[in-house]
Amino acid sequence: MSNQFIVVETAGNVRSITLNRPEVLNSCHSPMAAELQAALAEAGEDGSIRAVLLTGAGRAFCAGQDLDEARPVAGEPPRDFAAHVRQVYNPVVRALRQLPKPVIAAVNGVAAGAGANLALACDFVFASSQASFIQAFSRIGLVPDTGGTFFLPRLVGLARATAMTMLAEKVTARQAFEYGMIYRVVEPDRLIPEARDFAASLASQATFGLGLTKRLLNASLVNDLDAQLELEADLQGAAGRSEDYSEGVTAFLEKRAPTFRGS
Ligand code: T3D
């Protein structure tokens, strides 16, 4: 599929997706969302892809919903926000969480509204020291979506999540790091090289097991202990049957570095 609003590149086993509407801070309109959904699905289906990197072109990561697309029009019925969220944002969050491979967000600048929560749905968030996160929804009378009310309280606790979502204050990358919201803060010129190196390194690991680990972490957000212990046992069973386990343990016993194939 040829893309107009995102750039999709592959380097080795890493698929990079760059949101590419810099003139509107990569805000998300329906055509861009459709391209993003398709790119994530392709990254999931392609067995040679073992890590995904998501970033934005220009000075922003993503300013959330394109408000021009969501503008009220006099004389027309109100926009169906619920349907839009279900069709556009929810599938993207599900895709990010269900991809059986790690997804790294490289937050190059401001991440606002759905754009902030898009980043938080990724497995690892690298941010430029000049980046910021704004739960902008309340500024325009909306509520957080794109999984924000699921991930934020779990990442930073209810008190900070309440302040972020109700006050819509800018959270700097360094604050986000201190709050446990993101994984790493990087100098702006190092962001993409470091995120790429990190993704390439992850892509050489035991991808099948990393995918199962992601399933366990997803499930841990809602399971009780018994359910989680059962799932750990099941998925350890699957991991133990993988080629990567065979290679990993053989390499350990032979005192050499493993060569994982990701299966
Ligand atoms: O159905 C549904 O749609 C519901 C789903 C909702 C999900 C949501 O994400 S709701 C939240 C939507 N996002 C926002 O409210 C954020 C809006 N943007 C901002 O508050 C600011 O732009 C930022 C704080 C992100 C950055 O500020 P600043 O001063 O660095 O940049 P700027 O000058 O405001 O923006 C630069 C340009 O991008 C500007 O266009 P111009 O004047 O150069 O022609 C601005 O209009 C445009 N832009 C920024 N954000 C959006 C946008 N255009 C459309 N939609 C945007 N979200």
SSE string: EEHEEHEEHEEHHEHEHHHH
Strand content: 15-25%
* Low confidence ranges: none
Roughly what is the average pLDDT, rounded to an integer?
97
Percentage of residues in helical conformation: 40-55%
Strand element count:
10
Biggest β-sheet: count, sense, barrel? 6 strands, mixed
Describe this structure in words.
The structure is a single chain. The protein is α/β, with parallel strands linked by helices and 263 residues long. It is built from 10 helices and 10 strands. The strands form 2 sheets. It has a 6-stranded mixed sheet with strand order 1-2-3-5-7-10, with helices on both faces. Strands 4-6-8-9 form a 4-stranded mixed sheet. β1 and β2 form a beta hairpin. Bound molecules: ligand T3D.
List the helices and strands and how they pair.
Layout: E1 6-11, E2 14-19, H1 30-45, E3 51-56, E4 60-62, H2 81-98, E5 103-107, E6 110-112, H3 114-120, E7 124-128, E8 132-134, H4 148-156, H5 158-167, E9 170-172, H6 173-178, E10 184-186, H7 191-203, H8 207-220, H9 225-240, H10 243-253
Parallel strand pairs: 2-3, 3-5, 4-6, 5-7, 6-8, 7-10
Antiparallel strand pairs: 1-2, 8-9
Helix pairs in contact: 1-2, 4-5, 8-9
The structure holds ligand T3D.
Ligand T3D is lined by residues 24-25, 27, 63-68, 70, 81, 84-85, 110, 112-114, 134, 136-137, 139-140, 142, 145.
Give the key terms:
263 residues, alpha/beta, six-stranded mixed beta sheet, four-stranded mixed beta sheet, 16% strand
Short description:
The chain is α/β, with parallel strands linked by helices.
